[in-house]
Task: structure prediction
Amino acid sequence: MPLSKVELQDIRSLLTRKGRNRRQEFLAEGVRLLEEALRHRYRPTILYFSKSLLSERGEKLVEAFRRARVEGREIPARQLEAISDTKAPQGVVGRFATPQTTLEELYRPETRRLLLCENIGDPGNLGTLLRSAVAFEMELVITAGSCADLYSPKVIRSSAGAIFGIGMVHTTWSDVKRLKTSFGTALVATDLSAREPVERLRSMTKEKGIILAVGSEATGLSEELMAQADVRVRIAHSRSVESLNAAVAGSMLMRELYQESSR
Result:
């Protein structure tokens, strides 16, 4: 059944940050992404699909959501393309409610590994960091400052569905500082001029929980955050490049934590 003009405009508004904030909803599209949502039991409020655009794998996905009692709405291909953010839609788009939670609600005293992304404005970098956070078993992702929207289409695609597999919250630096003080969690900052090598992280995981802070490639971490850091670490690399990409550096640091915790 085709969408009305009003319905179509309503859905398309979720492709913008303003629309997502106003409605507290977001869209995720594509077979692989929605398979991840299903795997993590993160169900959409409604699934839009167009049979003419679906692959066999896509048809099985739609059926799986039907069995999970998710409302499905078949729409014409032209309308599916209108609510898609990709050049070659795969025929299926999920509409999800944005989680309404706070840092205090998500954090647990036994939480050991948190990722803090400060001013990561590039959606591709933020999505990659989320994907690495899930791969290396970080327990919570916090964004602060002028980060890209966690639920923007580009972040979701770059995360390869990782947004469905980890707790995430955008908050203020003051909230992070309050958490750090209350629970004695160590704040670890990346710093090109630091003396401590990245291997220092290995011993720290045995002592207390860690907030691993990653800043933008252009400006790094803020002065306020750096001033509060318990430890500053550097990643050794050739002088032929000035710095590493934020997502690459953050992923390397998360791997260090993961290797130590998995021993």
